[in-house]
Amino acid sequence: MATVRFTRNLQRHVACPSAEAPGATVRESLDHYFSIHPRVRGYVLDDQGALRHHMAIFVDGRQIRDPQRLTDPVTPAAEIDIIQSLSGG
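Now predict its structure.
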């Protein structure tokens, strides 16, 4: 199963421990994770189920290409990292 991990700055706002999550896509893995940790969903996804603009997801160190539908593939040994995007000047 893939491992879903969150940065510490997000963990300050909501409990989001690292956990294994089955699935063939980012969406499937996150749906499983959110079924166990439902409070995290609102921090990561918007009301349409798309990735929030201030968030980023990486699978094995590569940023996902489909932040709307989250269809990027996930292997059983994948590491899914969810971080808050930084902006500023």
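The beta strands are 2-6, 19-21, 55-59, 62-63, 79-84.
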